[in-house]
Design goal:
Elements (H helix, E strand, L loop, with lengths): L1 E3 L6 E4 L8 H6 L2 H10 L3 H26 L8 E5 H8 L3 E5 L2 E4 L4 E3 L13 E4 L2 E12 L5 E2 L4 E3 L8 E2 L1 H4 L3 E4 L4 E4 L7 E8 L8 H16 L9 E4 L4 H11 L5 E4 L4 E10 L3 E2 L3 E2 L11 E2 L1 H12 L13 E4 L11 H10 L3 E3 L6 H9 L3 E5 L15 E7 L7 H8 L6 E7 L11 E2 L7 H4 L3
Length: about 450
């Protein structure tokens, strides 16, 4: 049942999220799962072993159960089809929102310069496809996934690379994908799915993460909601999103738009489903580490520009003297921390930087802070996605660990899509705790460039 939220805004939530939990959630809720989370997850070796067991053992178990025990129609193999292919095959109506665009991605600056070889470029430029809205009849969506189920196929977005990309749906046991044959088994079934005549889908596995929401989901929503022809179409997003994410949604969708919150495990069947094509995409994980030149993420400049203009005043001069021009981002997290953060913070503070904690700010405050900044310094983290609101002249310095598996072009690609570039200061990993790309690291204060410290 769709129930109203106690709010003056037009928000509805589909109830009972707990009845369709996926196998991963069920396992983590056992005593063994709780023991792993509390005592083993922080160790890289334990994570690698569990990941190997899951990736190799779960597909065999799932196929066996689907073939021999659950011989029903729901668990059958279905074609996994990209949206543009489905549009062409079905001769679906589409409405074009933006042309394809080219993005130049030059090498970012690196300090110390001798560590430049840690960065391997996946491309010097890329073409981002055109953006459109397609309409599919009689489709089903689930909370927490951007995969769309129809009677005869499962539709994914155009940038998904079957052989390379491992998905959150597979990690949580909601689906099994055969990348060679481009087929999928869907295991998360809601026997009492809700029905609606028409809706636009914006549920996504990455939506709860602020950076992914800001660069991959919200730009699609701003494009859709800007079109007068779609003004009466409800939009569907994940339930349980952070208050700052919800604030950004309401600023983009407006107070009159009906918003439906869809929990993980619950299904919504739409007689007419509006799908806005991808405006940005970052693979969750690589399916095969042997494949080189994997994507670090690609983003539509037109979509990010439209989002920025919508939120800071249609591209007009928004400079406000009450906001600091030189900001140092304090990061409060259990992963990717700078071990000597206190000393680093003091150094920047002594050079006139204001120390800020973005997670303690509202979404609107973060937009104002970054749109007025002339120089930003901070370690890699979700708050840095706010650089899309910075003017093209803003200088961006990012502290990050030295690891050849790190997707260094992620932040560079976001910056390049909004007319900027980044500077990286690389640090040595602290291997006493978590290893890999999420390890804490130490910054050599002597390697800091004067151009960043002085703001020149």
């Amino acid at each position: 049942m769709i129930v109203p939220i106690e709010s003056p805004l037009n928000i509805r939530k589909i109830d009972d999220p707990s009845i369709n939990r996926d196998i991963s959630a069920k396992l983590l809720n056992t005593w063994l799962g709780r023991f792993y989370t509390s005592n083993l997850k922080q160790h890289a070796g334990a994570r690698l072993i569990i990941a190997w067991i899951w990736r190799n053992g779960y597909p065999m178990r799932a196929n066996c159960l689907a073939t021999h025990l659950f011989k029903d129609k729901e668990n059958r193999w279905r074609p996994l089809v990209k949206l543009s292919e489905s549009v062409k095959k079905r001769d679906l109506p589409i409405y074009k929102l933006a042309d394809k665009t080219s993005v130049e991605t030059p090498w970012p600056k690196v300090f110390p310069a001798s560590e430049q070889n840690y960065l391997v470029s996946p491309h010097n430029r890329y073409e981002f496809p055109e953006i459109f809205v397609a309409t599919i009849k009689n489709a089903t969506i689930y909370g927490g996934t951007n995969l769309i189920l129809t009677d005869d196929e499962v539709v994914c977005h155009d940038l998904y690379d079957f052989p390379r990309d491992y998905t959150i749906e597979e990690l949580h046991g909601r689906a099994l994908i055969n990348p060679k044959s481009a087929r999928i088994r869907w295991f998360l079934h809601d026997k009492q799915s809700e029905q609606i005549s028409a809706a636009a889908v914006f549920v996504d596995a990455c939506a709860p993460n602020y950076a992914h929401w800001l660069t991959e989901v919200l730009p699609r929503i701003v494009f859709f909601c800007a079109e007068e022809r779609f003004k009466n179409v409800p939009i569907v997003v994940n339930a349980g999103l952070h208050k700052n994410i919800m604030e950004s949604l309401l600023l983009v969708a407006g107070p009159e738009r009906e918003i439906i919150l869809l929990p993980i495990g619950r299904a919504l069947h739409c007689s007419e489903l509006y799908i806005t094509s991808v405006t940005g995409y970052v693979p969750f994980e690589r399916r095969n580490s042997k494949l080189s030149n994997h994507s670090h993420g690609v983003f539509s400049p037109l979509a990010l520009e439209m989002l920025r203009n919508h939120l800071i005043g249609q591209g007009q001069n928004v400079e406000d003297s009450t906001w600091p021009k030189k900001i140092f981002l304090r990061r409060n997290s259990e992963i990717r921390n700078v071990v000597n953060a206190t000393e680093l913070e003091r150094m920047f503070f002594s050079h006139g930087y204001s120390v800020v904690e973005p997670e303690r700010m509202t979404f609107s405050q973060q937009v104002k802070l970054f749109s007025n900044a002339k120089i930003i310094a901070g370690s890699s983290g979700a708050a840095l996605a706010n650089i899309i609101f910075c003017p093209p002249t803003t200088k961006i310095c990012i502290f990050i660990s030295k690891d050849r598996e790190t997707s260094y072009w992620y932040w560079q690609n976001i910056a390049c899509a909004t007319g900027k570039t980044v500077t990286y200061v690389l640090g040595e990993k602290n291997k006493n705790k978590m290893d890999g790309i999420h390890a804490s690291f130490v910054i050599d204060l002597n390697t800091l460039p004067s151009s960043i410290l002085g703001g020149g």
